[in-house]
Design goal:
Layout: H1 2-13, H2 19-33, H3 41-46, E1 56-57, H4 75-78, E2 80-86, E3 94-107, E4 112-116, E5 141-147, E6 159-160, E7 164-174, E8 178-179, E9 182-183, E10 191-197, E11 206-207, E12 212-213, E13 230-231, E14 240-248, E15 259-267, E16 273-282, E17 295-298, H5 302-305, E18 306-309, E19 316-317, E20 336-338, E21 341-344, E22 346-353, E23 361-362, E24 368-371, E25 376-384, E26 394-396, E27 400-411, E28 414-424
Parallel strand pairs: 1-13, 8-18, 14-27
Antiparallel strand pairs: 2-3, 2-5, 3-4, 5-10, 6-7, 7-16, 8-9, 10-11, 11-12, 14-20, 15-18, 15-19, 15-22, 16-17, 21-26, 22-25, 23-24, 24-25, 27-28
Length: 438
């Protein structure tokens, strides 16, 4: 019977014009091997009528714009791990895919490429995975996924159920710092996707992590696929990003040589987190982006609290940074990866050259010092805070970029208008490719 079952699975996996013939013979073989045909759910899941639609994945949205033709190592080639349930949150809820490994496969025989999950250990999968079909009477469907797919030997350490996501502590999310425009490596080992297919329509799936409709307009995307129903998985960032900028609207005549340099942005809160190991999220009451890290490492030295710095060789031209569109981003326009956390307090230090005041001066708190001989003002540990809204510390959430913009109206006494912005991390998510047949 074991051999017979494997033969049946292999026959059912063939997507050929002889589909009816294959299914008929599968039924004959199965019933011949048993006293009576059983109600085994796995067999019934496979034994469907002609015309049923197999469950397929389109190219998922990844961490950068990539194509299926890319040969370098990236999220696209590493696949993803997915759990799927039908009849979600109803009395009919049942699991369809229990931590299925999805690989990007290219057939040398047909020269076609697609995301595939059907196969056995001999095909390179960590377990036997059978083809699934849409049940038109069991919507909504719910998909939870993480990318890249963990190594086969590690998958058992991950929890991916309808109520919980858990990434083991062997996976570390690490912050980034920037020195003269050079970023440290940082780390974001996994990204999640959470999608609901509310009905049989292939145009109305919902990205539950940003509460938007997933656009799968095949004409608009130039796709020619004839698949009736597929799932696109937009992956999002468990980490956040921060970036800092400055511009001025100096009311007096702007000097022709007007520079900012020796910038240092520092986190000064005692609980500043630099690394998070493992991750867990309650999927019954929340979503995959509102979880917590199992273990955290906090900064213990001043060097570990420095997020960004430049020296005298990197000079921002303040005579050009005169509005938000031309703000100087301290050699780090794209921002730095950070571990999401609460209550972050920040300071900034910098030097400004080019202002010709009448004499030297020092502010009463000692944070501002002007040297007339060098025409330089030194600013030390100026708090980055929102006085207008009485905000002195900041929370960083997953999948957002936080942009801190300082507008300087007067340099002494220093007058800074602070602005903080946050936007979804949409500028690094690439495009959904729906053409599965090329």
């Amino acid at each position: 019977m074991v051999l017979l079952s494997k033969i049946i699975q292999l026959m059912l996996r063939k997507n050929t014009k002889n589909y009816n013939f294959t299914l008929w013979w599968a039924g004959v073989l199965l019933c011949a091997g048993l006293t009576a045909c059983t109600a085994d759910s796995t067999i019934q899941e496979e034994d469907v009528a002609d015309g049923s639609v197999p469950m397929q994945f389109s190219q998922a949205v990844m961490s950068a714009s990539v194509t299926r033709a890319a040969t370098t190592t990236n999220y696209l080639t590493q696949g993803f791990l997915v759990g799927c349930w039908k009849g979600f949150a109803s009395t009919k809820q049942s699991v369809v895919m229990d931590k299925y490994e999805v690989k990007y496969q290219t057939s040398l025989w047909t020269n076609n490429s697609k995301w595939d999950y059907v196969g056995t250990t001999s095909d390179g999968y960590y377990k036997t995975q059978i083809e699934r079909y849409w049940d038109t009477n069991a919507f909504p469907y719910r998909f939870y996924a993480i990318s890249p797919c963990p190594a086969a030997s590690d998958i058992s350490k991950f929890t991916l159920t309808d109520t919980k996501l858990e990434i083991p502590t062997t996976s570390a999310f690490v912050y980034q710092t920037c020195n003269n425009g050079v970023l440290t490596a940082g780390a974001e080992p996994y990204m999640p996707a959470q999608v609901e297919c509310p009905n049989g329509s292939n145009e109305k799936d919902v990205d539950l992590l940003n509460n938007t409709i997933i656009s799968k307009d095949r004409t608009q995307n130039g796709a020619t696929t004839t698949y009736d129903r597929y799932v696109a998985l937009p992956f999002h960032h468990i980490t956040s990003k921060v970036r800092f900028a400055i511009y001025n609207n100096y009311e007096k005549e702007t000097p022709s040589n007007f520079y900012i340099y020796n910038v240092k942005v520092k986190a000064v809160s005692d609980n500043y987190v630099t690394e998070g190991k493992g991750y867990t999220a309650d999927l019954k009451n929340s979503d995959m982006l509102h979880g917590s890290f199992i273990e955290t490492t906090k900064a213990t030295t001043d060097d570990e609290r420095i997020l960004l710095q430049t020296d005298e060789t990197k000079q921002g031209e303040l005579n050009k940074a005169v509005d938000r569109n031309n703000a100087y981003f301290f050699e780090c326009t794209d921002g730095m990866l950070q571990v999401p956390q609460k209550g972050v307090k920040l300071t900034i230090s910098f030097d400004v050259y080019g202002l010709d005041y009448k004499s030297d001066f020092v502010s009463t708190d000692g944070h501002i010092v002007y040297n007339k001989t060098s025409k330089t003002i030194h600013y030390t540990d100026i708090a980055i805070k929102d006085d207008k809204n009485s905000i002195e510390s900041f929370d960083w959430e997953s999948n957002y970029i936080y942009t801190y913009i300082l507008k300087v109206s007067e340099f002494y006494p220093l007058t800074i208008d602070f602005s903080a912005e946050l936007t979804p991390w949409t500028d690094v998510t690439g495009d959904i490719e729906t053409n599965l047949e090329k």
